[in-house]
Amino acid sequence: MLEEYIHNQHPKVEHALFLNKYGTRLSTVSIYKVTNKLGKKAGLPKLGPHCLRHTFATNLLARGAELEFIGTELGHKDLKVTRIYVSIPMEKLVSHYRKIKE
Fold first, then answer.
1. Pick from 6, 27, 2: nearest CA to 16
2. End-to-end CA separation in angstroms for the chain
3. Is 0.70 surpassed by the pTM of this model?
4. Which residue has the higher pLDDT, 79 or 17?
């Protein structure tokens, strides 16, 4: 559905997933503002795109995803960068995740 949505957008949008009220691509600053505003509403005052990416990567790792897969999903070309996102010790993370799932 996302591919179809992006494919059917107006040509000047350059295949953006998130658009502003004018129908053009959101800027980096706008994305930070939107995530920060939503974070405050949810009681998470420091929420931002980086935090969301880190959470996504950590959840993938906790569910057993390989580092290479996580790196691909995040768009990293170097696994050293991916390791920064998933720097929590694997055993501790998996143990914590299993406790939550029980």
1. 6
2. 33
3. no
4. 79
